[in-house]
Each structure stands twice: as C-alpha cells, then as structure tokens.
Amino acid sequence: MKLEEKRLSGELVYDGRIIKVWRDEAQLSNGKTALREVVKHPGGVCVVALDDAENVLFVRQFRYPHGKVLLEIPAGKLEYGEDHRACGLRELREETGCTCDSFEYLGSLLPTPAYDTEVIHMYLARGLHAGEQSLDEDEFLEVEKIPLKKAAEMILNNEIADAKTQAAILKTVLKLSGH
Question: Maximum distance among all alpha carbons in the chain?
Fold first, then answer.
C-alpha cells in the first residue's frame, strides 16, 4: 500500500498574524476521502547558546497557551522565506544580547506533524560575546545560565517541558560526547 494522501480541495478558515488554518479534503491511499485540518506556520529557530564553561543560556518567559512560565532556549519565529541561520543569529542577540564565533546547524524537527507545517531549525552557538538584549516590545523574558549536564538532567526529570529545548539540548549533549 502506498502511504500517501492527495489534497483535493481546501478552504482557508482562519488567516492570523502568525498562523493560517486550512480545512482540506484529502484522498487517502485506499481511495476514500477524509477531512484534514492544517495549521500553516512559517517555522522557527532555536539556539543552544553554550559558554566556555559549558553553561547554557536559557530564557524564562510566560507562555500564554499554557498559562505559566516556561524554561526554554532562545528561539523565534521565521518570517515566510527568511533564512533560518540569519533568524537564529538575530534571536540569539535579541533575547540574550550575545553574538558568537561559531554557529553550527544541529538539524530540524517537526514539533506537531499531524496537523501543523511548522519546522524548527536547531543551532549550537559557541564562543559567546555578551552584549545588550533588544527584545520585541511584546517580549518579556529573563536570561538564566544552567550547566549543560544539569539541563540534560532537568529534561530527564521532566523539569523542562518545551520540546524544541529538549531536542536541541539532548542533541548537543550527544554531539559533545562524540556521537
């Protein structure tokens, strides 16, 4: 059986500032049709900012959908068509005030592939140079340093809930251990 679905028709049901929501009719691999709701998102970038002492720069910020403050690595939304490397460097500077000597691509992840087109690109920044934050006018966050090893333990102990942070930190741990 061929694992493929074909979009037959679609209707834009919400056109927001960040997301667009489509209701599509799709043909399944068995020939039947099904309704698919798809959130179109421009994607994002996250950065593991690692200092010379192997501390990671985290940000604490209130996340409205969950009604609480979350601990995350610096991250941001791409503009449609924007280069993800440039976005990552910008978000690192804006959220932490840092620039870096090395900016290494760690790959991408699909946070919610069942209904969302978002792709998050992950980077490792090293050789950090401190500077001034330049937050967006609607952005409020606190920067915190946590040792990389402790951050990995926090992930394993369910103290860091954010998926992009979990993936990027664990990839960094594996990469630095020679995997």
Answer: 58
Which residue is it, tokens 């074909």?
A: 6
CB 5 within 8 A of CB 83: no
pLDDT digits (tens, 9 = 90+) for 47-86: 999 999 999 999 999 999 999 999 999 999 999 899 999 9
Instruction: For residue 137, indicate whether it is catalytic.
Output: yes
The separation between the first and the last C-alpha atoms of the chain, rounded to the nearest angstrom, is 36
- Which string of b and e fits 33-53 if b means at least 16 CB within 10 Å? eeebebbbbbbbbbbbbbbee
The runs of H, that is alpha helices, within the chain are: 84-96, 148-156, 163-176
Q: Are 54 and 39 in contact (CB under 8 A)?
A: no
3 DSSP β-pair partners: none
Please tell me which residue in 4, 11, 132, 137 is annotated as part of the active site: 137
Is pTM beyond 0.90? Reply is yes
CA distance 150 to 10: 46
Laid out side by side, the sheet with 6-15 consists of 6-15, 20-27, 33-40
Architecture of domain 44-176 in CATH?
Answer: Alpha-Beta Complex (3.90)
Q: 149-179: per-residue pLDDT in tens?
A: 999 999 999 999 999 999 999 999 999 998 8
